[in-house]
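Morning!

This is the sequence you dropped in the shared folder:
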Amino acid sequence: AGDCAALQAFWRATEGALPWGSPTNASSLCGWDGVTCWADGDFAGTVQRVERYNSAGLTGDVGLLGGVANLEILILRNTAVTGDIASLSGLANLQYLQQFQHQVRYV
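The structure's back. Tokens below.
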């Protein structure tokens, strides 16, 4: 439920610019475009990866993704996403963060 709530909040912050429609069903979030879930193990069914490429019109606060508890990979390239990277510090499993050509602040 936490992953879904965090992704819904991010989707709302993007003013619907993500191709997720109105993401309301937690059981389907693993099929959302750019979202990959863990297939097995302790984190099975939770979000492992969020990626957006060449989405220049994509705005929103990256900090809203801090609620995706088991996120391991976050890729945001060529977006207008803003926020502080520090807001992701609680993501214990985050191993890879790729972002460039947007306005995320490092604090």
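Headline: The chain has a mean pLDDT of 81.

More detail when I'm at my desk.
O.
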